[in-house]
Amino acid sequence: MVHDKNTPMAQADGQSASDSDSNSNSTDNPSTRTSRRRFLTGSAAAVGAGAAAAVGFPSIAVAQTTTLRFQSTWPNQDIFHEFAADYVRIVNEMSGGRLRLNLLPAGAVVGALQLQDAVISGALDGGHGVTAYWYGKHKAFSLFGTPPPFGWDAHQFLAWFWNSGGMELYNELLANLELPLVGYQTGPMPTQALGWFKEPIASAEDLRGLKYRTVGLAADLMREFGAAVTIMGGGDIVPAMDRGLLDGAEFNNPSSDRLLGFPDVSKTWMLRSYHQDCEAFEIIFNKTKHDSLPEEFQAILQYAAKAASSEMYWKAMERYPKDLQAMREEQGVQTYITPDSVLQAQLDAWNTVIENESQDPFFKKVIDHQREYCERVVGWHLEGTAPKTPAYRHFFGKEPTDTSTIL
């Protein structure tokens, strides 16, 4: 160890360095040499012990690393699994590796629709999915992931969840059902397409009798049109369409749909719909496991959900348009704008779904809370926000729908 001669340690000898240089007798004195030897020997031992302790710290930190088994509800090739991986990366980086999530794809431990039960039982410590998958336990689950189209977008939905009472209602639902979970909403999803079909959907009547895949309250909505609805995980949809088990299906976005292989089984994609006008992901953890973690780790899990939310949307804005263009130009996909008559019929059907499900007091409590929020917040947003289509038309000299067929 090297000490500056002006530091207190340099003075611990009882003399300054300059005094030592000017008085050669002091350094030649046997007793002085012995004293200095003992001091230096002791100092070296102390330094050695300190160095050993410093070297030991990383191994102690590694030994104390907490690893959680974390599965997504998405196939490996889906961009949604990539979004789950982004959340995992952020958690691992924020914790400096002391808390690590071990990410697995759908099916690694359980199927997509069994994720919540696996987290509750402790077979998994946590997972990444959507609340609509659990609406079989209570219809209100869908309200926390795929709510009715009250004019809001997914950013406004997440604002409701995090800042305006949504999280408290979500936790109340978990408590009512005695589900030992801790969860967060994350990742705003843009409006989803009506889906992939054999032929374009020109009217609401075209949906009658169709074997159709969707999830959550959208299943109830499509049943109002007379569709035969099947609920299944993302990785099962394209094989089902290929075998003729489905006549039509929706999943989510251009990147996911392309990666999952939808263009291989259909060339007709209907854009725009009110069945899932806004949606967000859900991150859940086993409550016992979560509550056993240090408060620092609990905070990281929550703040990482917020950070991943923004990162996901930024990535989506870059990837989704490119994949849509690639499907059109390279895979022969024809896109169609869902007719206004179908959209209006969806809104009318939502009235029926909401009225039917509001017989449940808790469902009604959440719906009323969301409606009050949207009347206030969406009203403000629509009043003050300039319409985007005229600006797009002005600067680019075309309609935003020029690449799709208007039915």
UniProtKB/TrEMBL annotation:
Pfam families on file: DctP
InterPro entries: DctP_fam, SBP_TakP-like, TAT_signal, TAT_signal_bac_arc, TRAP_DctP_sf
Stored Gene3D superfamilies: Bacterial extracellular solute-binding protein, family 7, Periplasmic binding protein-like II
Superkingdom of this protein's organism: Bacteria
Spans traversing the lipid bilayer: 39-63
Region (Disordered) residue spans: 1-36
Keyword entries, A-Z: Membrane, Signal, Transmembrane, Transmembrane helix
Bias kind Low complexity: ranges: 18-33
Signal peptide feature range: none
Entry keyword NAD: no
Annotated protein name in UniProt: TRAP transporter substrate-binding protein
Organism expressing this protein natively: Billgrantia antri
